[in-house]
Every structure is written in C-alpha cells, then in structure tokens.
Amino acid sequence: MSEAVVKPLWRRLIGFNLLSGILLGIVGFYFGWWLGHQIHAPSLEYFADTNQNDVALLLGYLFAVIGFVAGLGFLNYPFSRMLGGPATQAEKEEGGVGRYFTLCTDHKVVGIQYLIGIGFFFFIAGMNAMLIRAELLRPSPQLFGAGNYLTLVGLHGTMMMGIMTSGILGPFANYFLPLMIGARRMAFPRIESLTFWLLMAAGAILMTTLFFGGFPTGWTGYAPLNDEANFGFDSYIFFFGLVGLSMTLLGINMIVTTITMRAPGLTWGRLPIFCWGAISTGILMVLAAPVLIAALLMVAFDRSVQTSFFLSSGGGSPYLFQNLFWFFGHPEVYVLALPGFGIILEILPVFARKPLWGYRTAVAGILGVALLSFFVWQHHLFVSGLNSSLRPFYMFSTEAISIPTGLVFLAGMGTLWRAKIRYTVPMLFCLAWFFNFFIGGASGVFLSDVPSDVATHGSFFVMAHFHYTIMGGLVFAFFAGIYYWVPKMFGVALNEKLGKIHFWTMFIAFNSTFAPLFALGLMGMARRVVTYPSHLQPLNDWVSVSAFVLGASMLIFLFNVVYSLVIKRIPAPANPWDSHSLEWQLPTPVPVENFERPPVINTDPYDYGVPPVALPPAPPAEAPAPG
Amino acid sequence: MPDVTSQAPESYAETPELHERIDRIGFGLVGGATVMFFFGFVFAYFYLRSLDSNGLWRPAGVEPPSGYGIAIAAALVLSALAFGYAARVSKQGRGGWVVPSGIALVLGLFACAAQAVEYAHIPFGPQSGGYASVFFGWTILYVVATLLALYRVEIAFAAGLRNRGREGSAVPEGFVPGAMYWGLLAAIGVLAWIILYLL
Ligand SMILES: [Cu+2]
Questions:
Q1: Residue ranges per domain, chain B?
Q2: pLDDT 10s digit of each residue in chain B, 199 long?
Q3: What are phi and psi of B66, to 5 degrees?
Q4: Where do the DSSP E strands lie in B11-154?
Q5: Distance between CA A570 and CA A494 in Å, rounded?
Q6: Which of A251, A301, A619 sits opposite B126 (nearest CB)?
Q7: What is the DSSP letter of A584?
Q8: Largest interatomic CA distance in chain A
Q9: Domains defined for chain A, CATH in brackets
Q10: Separation of CA A363 and ligand 1 centre (Å)
Q11: N or C end of chain A: smaller count of CB under 10 Å?
C-alpha cells in the first residue's frame, strides 16, 4: 500500500462503492418498475384495477438488488472470470475508511460492517417495538389503526427474525472465527462480503414496504393472506428471500472455513466452542434457508404469474406454505439460538478461570439441537387440523430437544461449579443468559405439549416464550459478545461502570416486560391484535412502561459506545481478560494478515488453571519471515 | 504466547490442494442447498397432489408436451457427461478439456432455450391448477439455477480459450467439484422430468 498520494474526496467517491451501489440500485428499481408495466396478459389485467402491479414491484426490487451489488463491484470478478481471467482470493484494496463502504475481502472489515449494519436495523426494529407498546397502553386503538398496527408488528418481527439471524455470526464469527482457528482469511472472502451487503439491501427493501401499504401477515407471512395482501407484501418476499440467500452463503463460508483452514494442531477436539456454534448454525442455514427461499418464490409466483400454490380455490393449499415455512422456521429459531450457546460457553471459562466442563458433552448438545430441529416443525401446526395421529411424534420430538439443550446447560453449570467468578460485564450477560434461556426453554415445553399448546396457541404466552429465548438468549449473548470482544475489534474497552448500569437496567426491565406477558397470554390476550379486554389494561401498562425502560437501557449502551469509543478512547491492553484463546494472543489492532506464520496449537482451548504443557522446541530464530 | 501456541517455522502456503479442498466442500454444500431448494417443489408436488383441492390438482388437458421433456432431460444429461469428461481429462493434466466444456455449455444453454420454447407451445398456463403451478414454478427456477451453474462451465471454457495451446497447465481451479455440481443439477433436472412428465 503506497500512501504517497491522497486522492481528493470527489475522486474517491467515483468507483465501486456504496454510493454507486445506491445510485445503480435506484436506477435498477425504476427500470424493473417500468419493465413490469410493459408486461401485459389477460390474467394480469386486474393489476390495473387495483393500481397495484406486483410484477412491476417484484421486478423493481430484483433489478434494484442487481444494480446495488453491481455498483458495489461484486460483478467485476465474475465478469473477469467469464472472460477467462484467473482465479484470485482477494480484491485489490485501498486502505482507510473507504474499505467499509465497498466490497472488502478483509474478514475483520466485514465483521465491523456487520456489527454496525446489524446494530442499525436492530435499533429500528427496537423502535418499532416501542411504538407497539405505546399503542398497547390503551385497550382500544389510539395511535395506529388495526392495519397499521399489523404492519408495525410485522416490521418488528420480520426485521428482528431476519436481520438478527446473522446477529452473532455476522459480526463475531466473521471477525473472530479465522483468528480462533489461526487462519488469514475466510474460505470465500468475496462471498463473505456479499452476505453483508445482501443483508443491508434486504433491510432497506423491507422498510420500503411503508411506501406500498405495509403488509398484514406478521413475520410468518402465512397463506392465504400472503397471496391476498396488497403489494406491500412484495417487500416481505424480497426481504426474507435475500436474508435466506445471505444466510445460506454465510453458512457455507463458516463450514468450509472451519473445515479447511484450521492451523496445524487444531484438531476437532480443540476447536473453540464458539466455532462449533458457528458451524452447526451454518449447517442449519445451508439446509433450511433454501426451503424458505423456495416457499417465498412460490408466493411471488402466486402474486405475479398467477399460479395457485397456496390457493385452494385454484388447486393449491395454504398449508403448503405453512409447512414449508416452518420447515425453515424451526431450524431458524436455532439459527438464532446456537451462536448464543457458542458465545456463552466461550466466555464462561474465561471469567470462571476453569476449563470448560464437559467440552464433548457441550459439542454433542449443540450438534444434537441442530439435528433435532429439523424434525419438530409441525408443533407450530398443532391446531391447524393436522392429522391427530401425527401430534404425539412432533410433541415428543420437540420435547426431546430439551435433552441436548440440557447438555449445554450442564456444561455451563459444571464450569461455574466452585469457580472463582469474575463478575465483569460480559460475564453478567452470560449469567443472565442462563436465567432467561431457562425460562424460555421451560415455557417452550408447555408449547410443545399438545394440550397446553392448544390453549395458548396464538396468545401472548407464545410471544413471551420466544422473546425469552430470542431476546433473553440471542440478544443477551450478543451484548456479552460486544463487551467481550470490542477491546480487540476497536482497541478500546467499553466503560465497565456504564456497562454494569446497562446490564442491570436491561436485565430487570427485560424480565419485567416479558414475564407478565405469560400471564397476559394465559388470560387470553391474542398476538397481533390491536385491541384487548379492558381489564387487562393495568398489566399491559406495566409491560409498556417496562418496555420503555428496556428501550432506554439501549440508550445507556449507545451512550457508553460514544463515551468509550469516541470521547475517552482509553487504549485497551491486547488481552484484557487474560483469555487463553487464540484471538487474544494477537496484538491490537489485529494486523491485516492476522498471523505472520501459522500458529501451532499444542493445548486445549480452555486450559485455565491447568499447568502449562511442555512445549516442543521453539522454531529456529533465523526462520525467514514470509515475503 | 507461551502456553497456547508455538509458531510453525514455515509461512502460510496457499496450495492448489487447499483451493481444491475449499472448492470441493463448498460445492458440496451448495449442492446440499440446491437439493433442499428443489425439495420444496417435490414436497409441493406430492402435497398438493394428495390434497387435490377442489379437484383442481390437474384438470383434463393439463399435459406438457412430452417431446420437450425428453429433449431437455437428454440435453442436461449429455451436458453433464461432457463436462464430467472434461473434468476428468483436466485432472490427468491433458489438454483436451476445452472442446467438451464448450459442448457442455452449448447443451446446457440448449436445455434452457428448449424450456423457453416449450412455454410458448404448452396447452395450459400457470393458472391451470396445482400441477400447473408446480410445473411452472419448478421449471422456471430450474432454468435460473441452470444458468447460474453454467457460469462455472463457461469460466472453464473461457479459461481454456484464453490459454489455448497450454491447456494442460492452465486447468481452472475447482474443475472437478464444479463438474460434480453440474452433474447433481442435471440429476435434479432428470428428476423434474420424471415427476412432472412421467408420474
Ligand atoms: Cu418451532
């Protein structure tokens, strides 16, 4: 990298970057929109009556995405290959901030891109939650009508379930998995970058639904409402389709990287548990997300070329969608949970100063959850009129998931047993995770059980359950990861005192928000409905106020970020937590190439308190540095 | 870093074997994802067929022209065989893989074109019931998947053209895994033919 000539700003804006991506994306959208209006067929004439041309909107989104990735420079390499050019592993890259706004093949840059991009959409989806709770302060509609309320709930749920699938793998696995296994790069660096930009395109597309009337289905997009919905639903289709594509590619990258790029001596039995979480999540992503994409394309066909996959009046069936969706959807919830398992078990030994108890048990637990998650999806359809002889199978397979999950808990508890725990902020989030996820898991047993599920289906009980597992699990693990790894990513630690204030506010407000929802659900409060019986108002107001405090706890976090990372900037030591794992042995900031020479792994990853193993003789000092 | 690691004296070497391994596992996983994707349509076929909602699964006259089905499936199989042969030759370090790659490319494109022509001559439309939905959905997306997979065939062919005369030493990386993936996709095409035309 020569830094002799600094180009003027206007010159740096021209090229393949986010700006060109956005511009070409807009051009692409209008091109597709125009093209869609040129297509005429007798079966499409009704578009003119409703003034909602789904073909035009779907094509608009399609060409917008193509323009966006072309503008970012993703098509350059495939074109050069199509002209017979050679295979390369990295783009020619300039240094500086510009890397964060374009196709960058440095996995550390992608990790930070993810952290900020996901944080942005997490913030927006969180704001939606605040609006939902504001609406529910009164039993009758006040701020939004029933329709807008549905869109609000749908936006919150869809964005959280879509964007946060990559909430942990995106930032932390992209950044740290290569460091943990002693690699210099991910197996597919361009695809790694593509997964990030596809996710950002998806988020932007989902928000445009507001211009097209929103969508009424919630995050599950059930048929036949998905066929009937006005054309705001097309953005849901594109959002989740792109998320599915991004997930599939992310999963492939994680698995291939872990299998092929481990440093010498890093056997499977020494692989950090976080990497196990990443690859088992990867397996779920690769096998489940394509089914979602297929189902969404069927909806797109129903809405555009007038097929009838999900219309029983046309020889289809809405339950086809429900089956395909949950065949993806249940593994999806473990896509959200498993990276959390990985982070928690990764961080626990560091602050317990003990080896991870039952490493193999924990790995078996993680893989067992991943495997079982493909055999349970019908538990979402217990009340759908499904053949009742199928119910026991899905009931038992679902309940069986508590066994491998229990193994993960066992490993965690065994690690904590008689440990000298350091109560740092990441550790507090880990401990809270066990508390929350236990409530989430235990309430899940009631939903896997047919008799109690029939009573609670579609109620706030279900809502409380999955918020305990996803927010209480994934989001707490996400924050544990942030507080733990930010010193390595940014060279500056987050303030401990503010972190503790953030933690306690968030933990208490979270429980105070979601625990009462179990009660509300049992009292009959339905999901996705803007009104509720007036005697439930006091409890709802309690929940809303708690939710606002929960939202405010995020502001404490944001303040901490600004205060620690921008204002104070106290440099963090290279290994502030005294961790034994490989990523902390590197200097901060991590060099562009990560490792000068491949590290050789001689020990288990969590040998805290264990006397050091005798090292093989050190390499000869005069070994030439790599060119 | 005392009790965690020592460092190997040799530097990082990105060997062709490593790249081949990455491509092999990568294509294996893409293959898995592709299978799951089309599994959605196989599931839709049997699910809607067994339900036969309103007797509209497959009204009389919803019958795709069998000649097109055979032509498409045959082109796919021949293309996969040609590309598989090309991969085999390239693995032996010989030069004769460029022409079979070109043949595979042409046959693959022919299959896509034949599918497009079939749409123009088919006696039913996408709105003709459950079977018609699956037929159009599956075949349209199969063409898209084929065009994406043909990218791999094309880059092998293009690399061969560019390095004419020294093909033996200019074998593109990931040739064999790419050929195996193309074979898998062709097999899915044959499965589509069996399910959509013969069952
Ligand atoms: Cu489920």
A1: 19-198
A2: 434 555 555 667 788 888 999 999 999 999 999 999 999 999 999 999 999 999 999 999 899 999 999 999 999 999 999 999 999 998 887 778 899 999 999 999 999 999 999 999 999 999 999 999 999 999 999 999 999 999 999 999 998 888 887 766 778 888 999 999 999 999 999 999 999 999 8
A3: -70, -30
A4: none
A5: 9
A6: A301
A7: G
A8: 80
A9: 23-85 (no CATH), 100-585 (1.20.210.10)
A10: 22
A11: C
A129-167 pLDDT, tens digit each: 999 999 999 999 988 888 899 999 999 999 999 999 999
DSSP state of A473: I
Q: Which residues of B touch A585 (CB under 8 A)?
A: 1, 4-5
A297 to chain B, minimum CA–CA distance in Å? 8
Read off the DSSP letter of residue A571: B
Q: Residue A229 and residue A214: Cα distance in Å, rounded?
A: 9
Instruction: Tell me chain B's radius of gyration from C-alpha atoms.
Output: 21
Q: Do A248 and B136 touch (CB under 8 A)?
A: no
> Judging by beta carbons within 10 Å of its beta carbon (0-12, 13-18, 19+), is residue B50 exposed, middle or buried?
exposed
B5/A602 Cβ within 8 A: yes
By the 8 A CB rule, do A292 and A325 touch? Answer: yes
The packing angle between helices A537-561 and A107-135, to 10°, is: 150
**Structure tokens of A564?**
């620690």
| pTM, full prediction | 0.93
Whether residue B5 lies within 8 A of chain A, CB to CB, comes out as: yes
**Which CATH architecture describes the domain B19-198?**
Up-down Bundle (1.20)
Q: Which residues surround ligand 1, an ion (CB under 5 A)?
A: A 330
Helices first, then strands: H and E counts in chain A: 22, 1
